[in-house]
Amino acid sequence: MSDQNCYILGIESSCDDTAAAVINNGVILSNVVATQTIHKEYGGVVPELASRAHQQNIVPVVHQALRKANIDKKDLSAIAFTSGPGLMGSLLVGTSFSKSFAFGLGIPLIDVNHMQAHILAHFIKAEGQTAPSFPFLALTISGGHTQIVKVTDYFDMEILGETIDDAVGEAFDKSGKILGLPYPAGPHIDKRAQLGNPHRFPFTKPKVGPLEFSFSGLKTAVLYFIEREVAANPQFISENINDICASLQYTIVDYLMDKIKNAVKKTGIKTVAIGGGVSANSEIRKALKDAETTHGWTTHIPRFEYCTDNAAMIAIVGELKFKQNQFAKNTVVAKARMKL
Predict the structure, then answer these.
(1) What angle do the packed helices 216-232 and 168-178 form, to 10 degrees?
(2) CATH 3.30.420.40, the chain: domain bounds
(3) If 0-12 CB within 10 Å is exposed, 13-18 middle and 19+ buried, where does residue 143 land?
(4) Which of 6, 137, 190, 268 is most buried, by the most CB atoms less than 10 A from its CB?
């Protein structure tokens, strides 16, 4: 089968977004995401509600992805899906649907590691996006993960360091909840930080190994700081919200950059790529761009639509695996925890 006739359907359902995308020869033909808004009421993702919403959304989302790509389901060459890591109930919906759909069409099934997909999203052919050359360092930053990965080839990846407790996205969201910001708080903190003084309130960066991360202490420090200040001035948050957000964001981004610098120094690799939901943050994007000038790095920053959970990144991994005949058996199962 020629690349021109190869159409891969990617399906993503690891958390609270139901997504489907169609790829052809590295080019995304459609990328549809149904975002679940119900979790905003609870200040975080409720697994049971997420899996129910996936059941409602998956058929219309796949239908829309095929329609936008202007192809019929009979044109598909394979179906790629997220098999983990993620919320078990959510993963089960995508896995069950994908297995049934592939079996019904008589086409191969391809299982995809969600975290690998965040990294390999850089290989989607898109305007303004160039693929990193091997080897490169990947910083995967999201609500569930914070890792520095050495990427030697498409499927040859080694975790050099990761968080010993919470992920960076959780630090943003929990801190935002303390400040009374809506969920997810990351984008709200980013927006307010643009208007604030990043040096107004110094927060201490957690001290762990040179390539490890820790965010639980930072969350606690924010909580105690806010409680103390609000006790003295009940209007403290509303009067200083922009400076608080700017200071918190500055601390987190500076901390992330410290770790990448350590990884570059250790490996000698000066090509750095970011991925995951937090890679949409304007300050980390700016810091990485600045590093090209100050440190001589080559940096790769994904387009916004490929930062948060999406099916385009699942589709590109599916296409790469399809070319290597890396197919899954119909007995494949979803896994909430999965190594890179």
Answers:
(1) 10
(2) 3-122+307-323, 131-301
(3) buried
(4) 137
8 A C-beta contact, residue 313 and residue 60: no
Give me the CATH code for the 131-301 domain, please: 3.30.420.40
Residues 249-279 have pLDDT tens digits of 999 999 999 999 999 999 999 999 999 999 9
Contact, 323 vs 73, CB < 8 A? no
- CA-based nearest residue to 114, from 308, 323, 285: 308
DSSP state of 122: G
Whether residue 39 is predicted with pLDDT greater than 60 in this model: the reply is no
First to last CA, the chain: 30
Could you please state the CATH topology (level 3) that the domain comprising 3-122+307-323 is classified under.
Answer: Nucleotidyltransferase; domain 5 (3.30.420)
Contact 84, 113 (CB under 8 A): yes
Alpha-carbon distance 117 to 62, whole Å? 19
